Amino acid sequence: MLKQRHQLFVTMFAGIDALVVTLACVLAWSVRHWVLGEAWPETWSSRVREPLVLSAVPVCLGVMWASGLYRARRDRSLASEIAQVIKASLISVCALVVLAWGMGEPSFLGPAHLTVDGPFGAIDAPRVQFAALAVALPALLVSFRISLRLVLRRLRRSGWNQRHVAIVGDGRLGQIAARTLSRNGWTGINVAYFVSHKPVADREQCLGRPVRAGLDGLERTLEEYKVDGVYLALPHGEWPLLPALLKRLEAFALDVRIIPDVPLRYMPQRMAVNELEGMPVLSYRESPLHGVGGVSKRGLDMAGSLAALLIFAPVMLISALAVRLSGPGPVIFRQRRVGWGGEEFWIYKFRTMRHGEEEQAPCIDDLDDATKAWTQRDDPRITRVGRWLRRTSLDELPQLFNVLKGEMSLVGPRPERPELISRFKDDWRGYMLRQHVKAGMTGWAQVNGHRGNSNLRKRLQHDLFYIRHWSLRFDLWILWLTVFRGFFHRNAI
Known about the structure:
Elements: H1 2-36, H2 44-49, H3 53-66, H4 78-103, H5 105-109, E1 115-118, E2 121-124, H6 125-157, E3 163-168, H7 172-183, E4 189-195, E5 205-206, E6 209-213, H8 218-224, E7 229-232, H9 242-249, E8 255-258, E9 272-276, E10 279-283, H10 292-325, E11 332-338, E12 344-350, H11 384-392, H12 399-404, E13 409-411, H13 418-427, E14 440-442, H14 444-447, H15 456-468, H16 472-485
Parallel strand pairs: 3-4, 3-7, 4-6, 7-8, 13-14
Antiparallel strand pairs: 1-2, 5-6, 9-10, 11-12
Helix pairs in contact: 1-3, 1-6, 3-4, 4-6
């Protein structure tokens, strides 16, 4: 029943998506004719071929299917779905461009000799149409998905199109699961009843829902009170029962989900389940930069650091000259810092203190609060030029060479000194998780004002949030915010 219902919804989604893609293609084709003042084709073959509908519909639906946009994921957020739709739309347009190039533009899109003047020269008809399609396709698909989501949420809140589930476990974890599902009614998941994690239920109700039975009456309850799925929320002490419980549930055509009895504070990073020759492997904690993610982030670092060096080269030369004239000592100051995986490296900065006084910081062991070892706002060791460089964050620009060498990233938690880390890892739970990604020149904490001599707890919370939600899109957003918030801030020392 559930499988047929899902197939019906997938067919409906794909059909409506096909209509939306068709509309976007026709709209882009119309924009091309309107911009170029091109005459409308007289033959039906041209009218069918030029809008690209016959190619765009299968390509776009295939990309959206590969992106997981037709899977039954009621727990997917709207923002996540919008991002996936935009990405799939742009990939589809790129695929169509390659297809058009392979088949030959004149025969595929009609006359290519018609052009319109653009900011970078003449633009021919195919490019006008593809540009319009790159705007129209994601805009229309996102509008459709948002509208559909809003309609489904309203219908589900009113009781239609719901999936009823039973929660096995009426203890603390089961109650958390029930409250969480109830707060997110837009998912359409309704908790119908509980089954106690004890052999015999010792209560009749839990959170206003009936407790139908204990584990001894599980099969009888599932046969008598039909549900679409089961959430296993066993307390930690009852986990030895899980294998036998899963075997008993094999007799029912139900979706089964397991909620681990682990507080979220002990899971600062996202978890994933993989399979190796039939053996399930739960990734409890791992760096998000392994695989494609790490390659894409490294590509962004290389391109971004090279571009930044070209853009800031005059500023760096002026800063270096100012440091040289400010007093004796090297222009570049080096200091040991800890990065990805606990590896130490030399970080580069423009020297901002008097030569020979940079390392004359208080002894960490003599301080009750290790954060007092950070440079203070009125530190007498800072030169006048150094104070200006720190206030504008220009002293950090030499770290672009650290990024090029692969020791740092453009975006990530700020690197810390080894002696401070030895204190922080004991005083602050989760601090070492910052080393699951490369240290960065800027980060989520920095663009939110937690830089310099600021609150370490807030900084750590923002760093762990970044690691848990890392994506290339998140990096680009932080870089964009850095342009406006990263150079000047009241917390900069």
